UniProtKB/TrEMBL annotation:
InterPro entries: MADF-dom (IPR006578). PANTHER family: MADF DOMAIN-CONTAINING PROTEIN-RELATED (PTHR21505). This is MADF domain-containing protein. SMART domains: MADF. It comes from the Eukaryota. It comes from Aphis craccivora. Pfam families: MADF_DNA_bdg (PF10545).
């Protein structure tokens, strides 16, 4: 079996359903055994090895970062709406759940400011 657009989209949807793999706030995110089990479940269901799935997601994540960078770079002073980059990559809308994955959380402070 080969990675085609439909297999890839199905894979992305399965990955999204396993926040243990992509959400650092998930309680089991740092548990390597549980994360490996999640990869094995996806691999079994889609018909690829867990390593192939990991490599595919690495490639997809890289492509998503490139698309995100193109979009951010296209914004600027004096640019018209028709000059803003819109992605035509087939997996872009399916990968949007990862858009803010690395945004830092609000922090709380124990120091009172007067």
């Amino acid at each position: 079996m080969d990675w085609n657009e439909q297999n890839t989209i199905t894979f992305i949807e399965m990955y999204e359903q396993k926040p243990i793999l992509w959400c650092a706030k998930h309680p089991q995110y740092y548990n390597k055994i549980k994360r490996n089990d999640a990869w094995e479940e996806i691999a079994k269901e889609i018909g690829f090895s867990a390593d192939e799935c990991r490599k595919k997601m690495t490639g997809l994540s890289s492509a998503m970062r490139r698309e995100k960078a193109k979009i951010k770079k296209s914004f600027g002073t004096g640019k018209g709406a028709d000059e803003i980059y819109t992605s035509s990559w087939y997996a872009y809308n399916h990968m949007k759940f990862l858009w803010d994955k690395n945004t830092p959380c609000q922090t709380t402070t124990s120091v009172s400011i007067k």
